[in-house]
Amino acid sequence: MDFEHILYDITDNVATITLNRPERYNALNGKVRQNLLNAVLHSNENDDVRAVIITGAGKAFCSGGDMKALNDPKQREKMNPSSDKISPIRDQIILAMRGAAKPYIAAINGPAAGGGLGIAFACDIRLAADTARVGLTFSRRGLHPDWGGTYFLPMLVGTAKAAELIWSGRMIEAQEAVDMGIVSELTKPENLLPRAIEMAMSFAAGPPIAIRLSKRAIYRNMEPGLREALEFETYAQNICVETDDVKEGVAAFVEKREPKFRGK
Protein backbone atom coordinates (compact mmCIF):
# COMPACT_ATOMS: atom_id res chain seq x y z
CA MET A 1 0.00 0.00 0.00
CA ASP A 2 1.17 3.54 -0.81
CA PHE A 3 0.38 6.10 1.90
CA GLU A 4 1.65 9.68 1.91
CA HIS A 5 3.64 10.34 5.10
CA ILE A 6 3.15 6.71 6.17
CA LEU A 7 5.54 3.80 5.68
CA TYR A 8 3.78 0.44 5.67
CA ASP A 9 5.35 -3.01 5.79
CA ILE A 10 4.12 -6.54 6.45
CA THR A 11 6.70 -9.16 7.44
CA ASP A 12 5.97 -12.51 9.09
CA ASN A 13 2.34 -11.56 9.82
CA VAL A 14 3.38 -8.32 11.55
CA ALA A 15 2.39 -4.96 10.04
CA THR A 16 4.59 -1.98 10.88
CA ILE A 17 3.02 1.47 10.44
CA THR A 18 5.62 4.24 10.57
CA LEU A 19 4.57 7.89 10.76
CA ASN A 20 6.87 9.48 8.20
CA ARG A 21 7.16 13.27 8.50
CA PRO A 22 10.50 13.32 10.30
CA GLU A 23 11.23 16.93 9.30
CA ARG A 24 8.12 17.96 11.32
CA TYR A 25 8.56 15.38 14.08
CA ASN A 26 5.74 13.37 12.49
CA ALA A 27 3.21 16.10 13.27
CA LEU A 28 -0.39 15.27 12.43
CA ASN A 29 -2.04 17.07 9.55
CA GLY A 30 -5.10 16.06 7.54
CA LYS A 31 -3.19 13.78 5.18
CA VAL A 32 -1.36 12.00 7.99
CA ARG A 33 -4.59 11.40 9.89
CA GLN A 34 -6.41 10.07 6.83
CA ASN A 35 -3.53 7.82 5.79
CA LEU A 36 -3.05 6.54 9.31
CA LEU A 37 -6.73 5.60 9.36
CA ASN A 38 -6.33 3.86 5.99
CA ALA A 39 -3.31 1.92 7.24
CA VAL A 40 -5.09 0.85 10.44
CA LEU A 41 -8.20 -0.26 8.54
CA HIS A 42 -6.09 -2.15 5.98
CA SER A 43 -4.26 -3.92 8.81
CA ASN A 44 -7.50 -4.80 10.56
CA GLU A 45 -9.04 -6.24 7.40
CA ASN A 46 -5.98 -8.20 6.25
CA ASP A 47 -6.04 -11.78 7.57
CA ASP A 48 -2.29 -12.05 6.91
CA VAL A 49 -1.72 -9.43 9.61
CA ARG A 50 -1.86 -10.82 13.13
CA ALA A 51 -0.17 -8.00 15.05
CA VAL A 52 0.54 -4.32 14.36
CA ILE A 53 3.36 -1.99 15.42
CA ILE A 54 3.05 1.80 15.25
CA THR A 55 6.23 3.88 15.43
CA GLY A 56 7.74 7.11 14.09
CA ALA A 57 10.47 7.94 11.62
CA GLY A 58 13.45 9.99 12.73
CA LYS A 59 13.82 11.45 16.20
CA ALA A 60 10.15 11.55 17.25
CA PHE A 61 7.22 9.19 17.64
CA CYS A 62 4.70 11.97 17.01
CA SER A 63 4.67 15.59 18.17
CA GLY A 64 0.87 15.87 17.94
CA GLY A 65 -1.04 18.36 15.81
CA ASP A 66 0.84 20.48 13.27
CA MET A 67 0.98 23.78 15.17
CA LYS A 68 2.81 25.65 12.42
CA ALA A 69 0.02 24.86 9.98
CA LEU A 70 -2.59 25.74 12.59
CA ASN A 71 -0.92 29.14 12.98
CA ASP A 72 -1.75 29.94 9.33
CA PRO A 73 -5.32 31.35 9.11
CA LYS A 74 -5.74 29.84 5.63
CA GLN A 75 -4.86 26.40 6.97
CA ARG A 76 -6.64 26.62 10.34
CA GLU A 77 -10.00 25.30 9.15
CA LYS A 78 -8.34 22.48 7.20
CA MET A 79 -6.23 21.59 10.24
CA ASN A 80 -9.09 21.80 12.74
CA PRO A 81 -9.34 18.20 13.91
CA SER A 82 -12.98 18.78 14.83
CA SER A 83 -14.04 19.90 11.35
CA ASP A 84 -15.50 16.44 10.65
CA LYS A 85 -18.60 17.15 12.70
CA ILE A 86 -20.10 13.65 12.71
CA SER A 87 -17.04 11.57 13.58
CA PRO A 88 -13.58 13.14 13.43
CA ILE A 89 -10.96 11.00 11.70
CA ARG A 90 -8.93 10.91 14.91
CA ASP A 91 -11.85 9.24 16.72
CA GLN A 92 -12.25 6.75 13.89
CA ILE A 93 -8.55 5.85 14.25
CA ILE A 94 -8.81 5.36 18.01
CA LEU A 95 -11.93 3.21 17.79
CA ALA A 96 -10.51 1.16 14.91
CA MET A 97 -7.36 0.40 16.89
CA ARG A 98 -9.25 -0.50 20.05
CA GLY A 99 -11.83 -2.53 18.12
CA ALA A 100 -9.24 -4.45 16.12
CA ALA A 101 -9.14 -8.23 16.42
CA LYS A 102 -5.35 -8.15 16.75
CA PRO A 103 -2.78 -6.64 19.14
CA TYR A 104 -1.38 -3.14 18.59
CA ILE A 105 2.04 -2.22 19.99
CA ALA A 106 3.38 1.33 20.17
CA ALA A 107 7.16 1.58 19.74
CA ILE A 108 7.77 5.07 21.14
CA ASN A 109 11.12 6.01 19.67
CA GLY A 110 11.13 9.68 20.71
CA PRO A 111 8.82 12.44 21.93
CA ALA A 112 5.12 11.54 21.94
CA ALA A 113 3.12 14.68 22.64
CA GLY A 114 -0.55 15.63 22.50
CA GLY A 115 -2.32 13.56 19.87
CA GLY A 116 0.85 11.55 19.36
CA LEU A 117 0.54 10.22 22.89
CA GLY A 118 -3.15 9.58 22.23
CA ILE A 119 -2.18 7.27 19.37
CA ALA A 120 0.19 5.42 21.70
CA PHE A 121 -2.57 5.20 24.35
CA ALA A 122 -4.87 3.51 21.82
CA CYS A 123 -2.33 0.73 21.37
CA ASP A 124 -2.67 -2.27 23.66
CA ILE A 125 0.98 -2.19 24.76
CA ARG A 126 3.52 0.64 24.80
CA LEU A 127 7.27 0.10 24.58
CA ALA A 128 9.64 3.07 24.62
CA ALA A 129 13.25 4.02 24.06
CA ASP A 130 14.83 5.09 27.34
CA THR A 131 15.43 8.52 25.77
CA ALA A 132 11.76 9.10 24.90
CA ARG A 133 9.52 11.68 26.55
CA VAL A 134 5.70 11.78 26.62
CA GLY A 135 3.01 14.26 27.57
CA LEU A 136 -0.50 15.54 26.92
CA THR A 137 0.66 19.04 26.03
CA PHE A 138 -2.67 20.50 24.84
CA SER A 139 -3.08 22.99 27.71
CA ARG A 140 0.19 24.69 26.75
CA ARG A 141 -1.55 25.80 23.53
CA GLY A 142 -4.94 26.59 25.08
CA LEU A 143 -6.44 23.39 23.68
CA HIS A 144 -8.52 20.61 25.20
CA PRO A 145 -7.08 17.06 25.07
CA ASP A 146 -8.43 14.86 22.30
CA TRP A 147 -7.40 11.51 20.75
CA GLY A 148 -8.90 9.92 23.89
CA GLY A 149 -6.41 11.53 26.27
CA THR A 150 -8.99 12.33 28.97
CA TYR A 151 -10.17 8.70 28.84
CA PHE A 152 -6.91 6.76 28.67
CA LEU A 153 -4.67 8.73 31.03
CA PRO A 154 -6.88 8.56 34.18
CA MET A 155 -7.28 4.81 33.64
CA LEU A 156 -3.51 4.37 33.52
CA VAL A 157 -2.35 6.72 36.29
CA GLY A 158 -5.44 7.62 38.36
CA THR A 159 -7.51 10.80 38.33
CA ALA A 160 -5.30 13.04 40.48
CA LYS A 161 -2.09 12.37 38.55
CA ALA A 162 -3.99 12.61 35.25
CA ALA A 163 -5.39 16.00 36.25
CA GLU A 164 -1.88 17.23 37.12
CA LEU A 165 -0.42 16.04 33.81
CA ILE A 166 -3.31 17.35 31.69
CA TRP A 167 -3.49 20.77 33.37
CA SER A 168 0.28 21.31 33.42
CA GLY A 169 0.87 19.87 29.96
CA ARG A 170 4.32 18.78 31.09
CA MET A 171 6.44 16.20 29.32
CA ILE A 172 7.70 13.31 31.44
CA GLU A 173 10.81 11.20 30.99
CA ALA A 174 10.62 7.57 29.90
CA GLN A 175 11.42 6.10 33.32
CA GLU A 176 8.67 8.16 34.98
CA ALA A 177 6.27 6.95 32.29
CA VAL A 178 7.15 3.35 33.22
CA ASP A 179 6.76 4.07 36.94
CA MET A 180 3.28 5.50 36.27
CA GLY A 181 2.21 2.54 34.13
CA ILE A 182 1.99 4.52 30.88
CA VAL A 183 4.80 2.49 29.30
CA SER A 184 5.35 -1.24 29.84
CA GLU A 185 9.04 -1.57 29.02
CA LEU A 186 12.11 0.50 28.16
CA THR A 187 14.95 -0.39 25.81
CA LYS A 188 17.96 1.33 24.31
CA PRO A 189 16.89 3.29 21.20
CA GLU A 190 18.63 0.89 18.84
CA ASN A 191 16.85 -2.09 20.42
CA LEU A 192 13.34 -0.62 20.43
CA LEU A 193 12.03 -1.75 17.05
CA PRO A 194 13.69 -5.22 17.25
CA ARG A 195 12.07 -5.70 20.67
CA ALA A 196 8.68 -4.55 19.37
CA ILE A 197 8.99 -6.92 16.41
CA GLU A 198 9.98 -9.77 18.71
CA MET A 199 6.91 -9.19 20.87
CA ALA A 200 4.59 -8.74 17.88
CA MET A 201 5.85 -11.96 16.28
CA SER A 202 5.21 -13.86 19.50
CA PHE A 203 1.60 -12.63 19.43
CA ALA A 204 1.32 -13.33 15.69
CA ALA A 205 2.34 -16.94 16.33
CA GLY A 206 -0.41 -17.32 18.92
CA PRO A 207 -4.01 -18.46 18.41
CA PRO A 208 -5.83 -15.63 16.53
CA ILE A 209 -9.32 -16.50 17.77
CA ALA A 210 -8.31 -16.65 21.43
CA ILE A 211 -6.35 -13.40 21.13
CA ARG A 212 -9.25 -11.66 19.38
CA LEU A 213 -11.73 -12.74 22.03
CA SER A 214 -9.43 -11.92 24.94
CA LYS A 215 -8.80 -8.43 23.57
CA ARG A 216 -12.54 -7.93 23.26
CA ALA A 217 -13.00 -9.18 26.83
CA ILE A 218 -10.37 -6.78 28.16
CA TYR A 219 -12.06 -3.74 26.64
CA ARG A 220 -15.66 -4.88 26.56
CA ASN A 221 -16.83 -2.91 29.58
CA MET A 222 -14.71 0.11 28.68
CA GLU A 223 -15.77 0.73 25.08
CA PRO A 224 -19.03 2.65 25.73
CA GLY A 225 -17.09 5.01 28.02
CA LEU A 226 -14.45 5.54 25.33
CA ARG A 227 -17.07 6.54 22.75
CA GLU A 228 -18.65 9.00 25.16
CA ALA A 229 -15.24 10.44 26.07
CA LEU A 230 -14.35 10.98 22.42
CA GLU A 231 -17.67 12.73 21.79
CA PHE A 232 -17.16 15.09 24.74
CA GLU A 233 -13.57 15.80 23.67
CA THR A 234 -14.87 16.84 20.25
CA TYR A 235 -17.47 19.12 21.88
CA ALA A 236 -14.86 20.72 24.16
CA GLN A 237 -12.26 21.06 21.43
CA ASN A 238 -14.78 22.78 19.15
CA ILE A 239 -15.17 25.44 21.86
CA CYS A 240 -11.47 25.80 22.66
CA VAL A 241 -10.23 25.96 19.08
CA GLU A 242 -12.22 29.18 18.45
CA THR A 243 -10.73 31.06 21.43
CA ASP A 244 -8.09 33.77 21.49
CA ASP A 245 -6.14 31.58 23.92
CA VAL A 246 -5.57 28.99 21.20
CA LYS A 247 -4.38 31.65 18.76
CA GLU A 248 -1.97 32.87 21.45
CA GLY A 249 -0.84 29.37 22.36
CA VAL A 250 -0.12 28.40 18.77
CA ALA A 251 1.60 31.72 18.01
CA ALA A 252 3.77 31.29 21.12
CA PHE A 253 4.79 27.83 19.91
CA VAL A 254 5.80 29.14 16.50
CA GLU A 255 7.60 32.15 18.03
CA LYS A 256 9.31 29.93 20.65
CA ARG A 257 8.08 31.87 23.68
CA GLU A 258 5.81 31.25 26.65
CA PRO A 259 2.10 31.97 25.96
CA LYS A 260 0.12 34.59 27.86
CA PHE A 261 -3.43 33.29 28.24
CA ARG A 262 -6.29 35.72 28.98
CA GLY A 263 -9.23 33.34 29.27
CA LYS A 264 -10.91 34.65 26.14
Question: How is this structure best described in words?
Answer:
The protein has about 260 residues and is α/β, with parallel strands linked by helices. The chain has a single domain, classed as 2-enoyl-CoA Hydratase, Chain A, domain 1, CATH 3.90.226.10. Helix content is about 50%, strand content about 15%. The protein contains twelve helices and nine strands. The protein has helices at about 30-45, 65-70, 75-80, 90-100, 115-120, 150-155, 160-170, 175-180, 190-205, 210-220, 225-240, 245-255, and strands spanning about 5-10, 15-20, 50-55, 105-110, 110-115, 125-130, 135, 170-175, 185. The strands form two sheets. The chain has a six-stranded mixed β-sheet with strand order 1-2-3-4-6-9, with helices on both faces. Helix 1 packs parallel to helix 4 and helix 6 (about 150-155) crosses helix 7. The protein starts with 5 loop residues before the first strand and ends in a 9-residue tail after the last helix. The model has no long low-confidence stretch (mean pLDDT about 90).
Task: Give the topology, please.
Layout: E1 6-11, E2 14-19, H1 30-45, E3 51-56, H2 67-70, H3 73-79, H4 89-98, E4 104-108, E5 112-113, H5 115-122, E6 125-129, E7 133-135, H6 149-157, H7 159-168, E8 172-173, H8 174-180, E9 185-187, H9 189-204, H10 208-219, H11 223-240, H12 244-255
Parallel strand pairs: 2-3, 3-4, 4-6, 5-7, 6-9
Antiparallel strand pairs: 1-2, 7-8
Helix pairs in contact: 1-4, 6-7
